[in-house]
Amino acid sequence: MRTLRRIGMLGLAGVVLAGFAAPAAHAADTPEAFSATGTARALHISVLGQDATFGVTDGNVGAPLTAVANAAGQLLQPASLSKVSLSSDNSTASDPTSGQQKCAVPALPDPLGTILKTDLACSLAKADITKGAPHAIGSAGVASVGVNAQSLLNGVLGNTPLGSLKLGDTVNQVTDQLQPVLDAIKSATSQTPVPLDPSTTISDLLNSLTTQQTLSLDLGKSTSDLVTTVANTTSTSTALGGQIKVLPIAALNNTPLATITIGSSKTSAVYDRVKGAGTASFDPALVTVDLAPVLGLPANLTHISVAPGQTITILQGTPLESTITLADGHTETSGKSAKAVADGVSIQLFKGLSALLPTAGTSSVRTAAAGDPSAAVVVELAHAESAVTGSPAVAGPSPANPAVPNPPEVKALAFTGTSPWLPVGGVALLAGFWGTRRLRRRLTA
């Protein structure tokens, strides 16, 4: 019996000592968090205030695990939309599931349906998360767009007083300087002449300009690609350029009065998961303009390069006056976050015609490259954006890596950790127990 009591008392003493000597529980670790987003738009076009947008992509990846990709051959056209979203490790998805592009005939509101002729609008979205590394990519675009306002103008000009106005009534101030240009065009198109006599009516002028294709656009596509590796998370957005041909002239083997060539724009943002820092960069689109020799211009003025941040106007003072604005890009960096934007190219075509035509509204899409919204046709291309942010994982305090104590609010610091006197107290407690036992035996002897 005495042996059992002794064992019990020893166990109790051990529990007391363990309770005093046990270290305090430390705070939980803070997991890593990061995100990357990307957006690109190949083409936005506005004709007489009616909008259509083609080749739009966006996506994001991050931790907690996320991988999302969206792509639209034509914005707001469900048949050309692709989208995927993942949130679990070791998963993958594609829309369409075949991994091939989804294409559909663009659906255009009136009167765009009678003005624009487009190829199929296509899109593809993919995403996967492998071993905690999310990846998403979306691509979309339309190969070509043709603009021919003839059917609309024929109806409008047949029922408006504007059709009876004389050309000389509106541009007499520039007739003298335009005459050599008009004569050159008349001579070059002698087989199928374009009547540009200042005495003709506005109706005759507009009808003559729209008996052939007004302009054609050959386009690339937009891509948003978001990739995660052990070291970095990267967002890359690319909007491929294209070529715009203004008023191809049939009598000159479809040589356009002006050819505008747009390069690609690209943005990139990188988050360093080890250092917890973000960086960003951009490559703006480059633009060149080639004017037809029939305009009678000197050779040094028929090929024009447009630098980022520059605006030029061609065919100034004529109904075909057009302005090209090539916006630059910019980056924003703040510690763990970074963003890059390439603002794209805005081209306002046929500014001399816009005042003569009724419009259905104004464009709903504006960018830093956008200029005068009054142009009859506004084309915006090659816009891209990339952004990243994050915060590294933070380990909680532990005996090997204790947390720094908070500043004291009173004179004495709060008790943390263990005391070196606790083991001594435990030994004294045991000694007192045994000493009491021996004293009791002597007293009862």
Protein described:
- There is one protein chain.
- By secondary structure, the protein is of the alpha+beta class.
- It has 8 helices and 25 strands.
- It has helices at 2-21, 112-115, 150-157, 167-171, 175-188, 202-209, 351-354, 421-444; strands at 33-47, 50-63, 66-74, 81-86, 91-95, 102-104, 116-118, 121-130, 133-142, 144-147, 215-219, 221-228, 232-239, 242-249, 255-262, 265-272, 277-283, 287-291, 303-306, 310-314, 322-326, 329-334, 337-342, 345-349, 377-391.
- Strands 1, 2, 3, 4, 20, 21, 22, 23, 24 and 25 form a 10-stranded antiparallel sheet that branches. Strands 5, 6, 8, 9, 12, 13, 16 and 17 form an 8-stranded antiparallel sheet that branches. Strands 7-10-11-14-15-18-19 form a 7-stranded antiparallel sheet.
- Helix 1 (2-21) packs antiparallel against helix 8 (421-444) and helix 3 (150-157) runs antiparallel to helix 6.
- The chain is elongated and about 140 Å long.
- The two termini are 20 Å apart.
Furnish the topology, listing elements before pairings.
Blueprint: H1 2-21, E1 33-47, E2 50-63, E3 66-74, E4 81-86, E5 91-95, E6 102-104, H2 112-115, E7 116-118, E8 121-130, E9 133-142, E10 144-147, H3 150-157, H4 167-171, H5 175-188, H6 202-209, E11 215-219, E12 221-228, E13 232-239, E14 242-249, E15 255-262, E16 265-272, E17 277-283, E18 287-291, E19 303-306, E20 310-314, E21 322-326, E22 329-334, E23 337-342, E24 345-349, H7 351-354, E25 377-391, H8 421-444
Antiparallel strand pairs: 1-2, 1-25, 2-3, 3-4, 5-8, 6-8, 7-10, 8-9, 9-12, 10-11, 11-14, 12-13, 13-16, 14-15, 15-18, 16-17, 18-19, 20-21, 21-24, 22-23, 23-25, 24-25
